[in-house]
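Backbones bend. We report:
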Amino acid sequence: MENSYISYKNYMDSKFLDKYGPWAIVTGASSGIGVEYARQLAAKGLHLVLVARRKQLLDQLATELSEQYKINCKTVEADLSADGFQQDILDATQDLEVGLLVNNAGMNCEGHFYRGSLERNLQMIQLNVKAPFVLAYEYGKQFAGRGKGGIIFTSSISAFNAHPYLSHYAATKAYILSLAESMNYEFKDKNVDVIALCPGMTKSEMTKGMKDGPMLMEAAPVVETVLDNIGKEAYVVPGILNKTQVFLNSRILNRSGATSLSGAILKKMLPGANKKKK
């Protein structure tokens, strides 16, 4: 049985590599979910372009994955919240056959609406909304022209309804979910798969300070869920508790009821929910 499982896994990894390889771009690859994307894609045999601001962490990860999985890794130091950021990534990949774009980089601004500065909120629009659109636009053209490829967006379960104390963050993730679903439909006839990962709270730098519990998932099963479902679904929600929350909010409660429930939960969970602007 074990040999049969290994053979099946190798077959599926080979199919994945053929459709989405030989190179994948992972943004936000220096920590959290981004690191896990890099690990699982490397295990499937894809070469990696790792993108983030902290080059030292990228270089350490690149060395580790290259040695462990015998793949090639390139690192690109880039601030995706800056105008024109994409040029460094395009230049670094101009001679590579990129087949998968993982739009993972993002930030949050949690707590009371005025807790974050205007500058930080505008930076979040750049990073969570503008950057993934720009990269999807640039590499989507390449994939469509080649007749194969894939784009993964990292959205959130907060995209499905309003979330007080995550108001602006949730709005950026609603944009990403809508974009991914629309592109999924449009790009099907071009043999390009598009999917949005909609995780709940996941252990990462963004969730530091939150209390551990059943709602806080490890990154590995979160990433595994989306890699298993690209080409099958327009979006995925990992974890039974997250699925239950989305079903409850979107199917059972009306919009105002879902907003009230989310607000009550987040007010207790988020450290900054009762703190105004610093």
Summary: The mean pLDDT is 87.
